[in-house]
Amino acid sequence: MGGGISRESLREHIPSLPGSYHCAMIGLDSAGKTTVLYRLKFKHYVNTAPTIGFNTEKVRLNGSTFTVWDVGGQDKLRPLWRSYTRCTDGIIFVVDSTKEERLEEAKLELQKICKSTVTGTAAGARNKNSIPVLVLANMQDLPDAMDAEKLEPLLGLRDLGSMRQWHLQPTCAVTGDGLQEGMGKLQEMINNRRKTSKMTNGFGPAAGIRSNSSTKLNTKKLQRSQSYSA
Ligand SMILES: Nc1nc2c(ncn2[C@@H]2O[C@H](COP(=O)(O)OP(=O)(O)O)[C@@H](O)[C@H]2O)c(=O)[nH]1
Ligand SMILES: [Mg+2]
Description:
Number of domains: 1
CATH superfamily: P-loop containing nucleotide triphosphate hydrolases
CATH class: Alpha Beta
CATH topology: Rossmann fold
Strand order of the largest sheet: 2-3-1-4-5-6-7-8
Bound molecules: guanosine-5'-diphosphate, magnesium ion
Strand content: 15-25%
Number of strands: 8
Largest sheet: 8 strands, mixed
Oligomer: single chain
Radius of gyration: 17 Å
Number of helices: 7
Order of helices and strands: HEHEEHEHHEHEHEE
Helix content: 25-40%
């Protein structure tokens, strides 16, 4: 193909089809990313091995197609994340809710990746209506899992900037609890971003969007009890 046009800039100029979404799933190693991917794809639990490189699957949910890229989370693989997140429609960031000692590391990695997705081409910079982030607070079936209320400040989600939509969703990837709901939220945020980008393209900065939220979950019963917006 002709030189000079990168894969990223092509993705920026070719609009995604309605009902079709490209998502990059990242997070520290052993957070449950691959378990999430196969739970979404096959609707049952699949035993995993550490991911060297990436896994990808097309997942059908609510009549839409999500192409999900699950990228290895070991620290030597993290420099790869950027090439998956730069031009994606949505970022899924998976956290092990039982590992308080790894939350600072997770927070810094999330901040780093979010920073890397606001700069870039002129179009990217104008469209400061940044790539939405779905944070999965995974392992909620375990007794020492922290709930969304506790995780939200520890992950610094409110510091991600006013142009960033995010949603914090408690999940258990083994049973699938919370996954459908989280993906529904991600879809809503992506559609919101697409709408805002259409309205503002070429007419100055995007209007601010504040649709950030956490789903609170009864961690014992894994049922949604309440949600709130920032
Ligand atoms: N109890 C429990 N274990 C989980 C959950 N999600 C993943 N796991 C387990 O955590 C381990 C790491 O999961 P994996 O998907 O390989 O993590 P990844 O490195 O982020 O891809 C595996 O043994 C999974 O079975 C969960 O929600 N609850
Ligand atoms: Mg994996």
